[in-house]
Amino acid sequence: MVVFLSKESEIAEVNKIINRSGLTAFLVKGSPNRLIFQKKVDLKEVCPELLKYIDDIRYAKESYKLIESGVNESSALIKVGDTFIGREHFKVIAGPCAIEGRGMIDETASFLREIGVKIMRGGCYKPRTSPYKFQGLKEEGVRLMYQAAKRNGLLMVTEAIDLESLEQITPYTDIIQIGARNMQNFSLLKAVGKTEKPVILKRGLSASIEEWLSSGEYIASEGNNQIILCERGIKTFEDSVRYSLDISSIPVLKDKTDLPIILDPSHAAGDFKYVGALAKGGVGAGCDGLLIEVHPNPKEALCDSKQQLSFKEFKKLFEEIVEIRKSLSN
Ligand code: PEP
Ligand code: MN
Q1: In the predicted model, what is the mean pLDDT of residues 25-45?
Q2: How far is the CA of 308 from the centre of ligand 2 (A)?
Q3: Alpha-carbon gap, residue 121 to 289, rounded angstroms
Q4: pTM (2 decimals)?
Q5: pLDDT value of residue 1
Q6: Atom number, ligand 1, closest to the C-alpha of residue 127
Q7: Which ranges in 54-185 belong to alpha helices (H)?
Q8: 68 forms bridges with which residues in the sheet?
Q9: What is the pLDDT of residue 114?
Q10: What residue owns the CA closest to ligand 1's atom 6?
Q11: Would you put residue 304 in left (φ > 0), alpha (ψ -120 to 50) or beta?
């Protein structure tokens, strides 16, 4: 009978045995407790002490071992507050590009609650291309967003742009977002890996799927496998849209990993006119959710004003997505 690893001390003991025996192995605790190796080993021979803790052994094919498909199926379903993302739990996450003040975030939160959105997005620390553009309300933004979310029974997601902002947002946010520009900020990835919060990991502007998954592995290797991948478009020679949305990453990722994958049509399109078509394309391709920018008055928005949907536009798209989802499940 294998020991079910539930206590920190038991997990530490197993990791100590692994280190002592000089094995390169990664423990995935749960039911079953699983060890991931890169090469074939005979555990009975190389480390019999481990046998009582381990009931399954897997050999990773890829460099991203812990998030490789079939290794840890529990990572397909992520609990966020009292709800889930992944498997049959499709989620639309929506909100403004940035928190700009109390009025607009209160207004947005109450609109989202009314139409049935459960998770609100919004940047408090903004990674802007130019240092002279609005950088976000920072701590004040987090406070306003948290209050608006709480008052309306919403969960929130906001971005950490560095270690300092990560520390500031972690107690308040339900999901930590790592933006495209930070996808390979390895110290930030390791730091979010040490938190216990779900993470939205956006695809880097010029990152391959392999590089993106390797960044996910940085987070998982620190102990946090609550990772939601977010496709948001990549740089190509095409300049009629802000980024080229790589819809093919959805089926490719479904093949390579169990992690949920959501789609951000707003940053890809860069124009409100195209957001709906891209969102619906993503739903058709099988994404597990959407991340969409919506603002009470997009023309006046302090950032990404061209791509944010008005409440009216968002409501229409949200209803269409609900219908498409229903028809896909029939
Ligand atoms: C965002 O979602 O607020 C954002 C800045 O997006 P990205 O990192 O994908 O550019
Ligand atoms: Mn934006």
Answers
A1: 82
A2: 8
A3: 13
A4: 0.94
A5: 59
A6: 5
A7: 102-115, 138-151, 163-169
A8: 257
A9: 98
A10: 179
A11: left
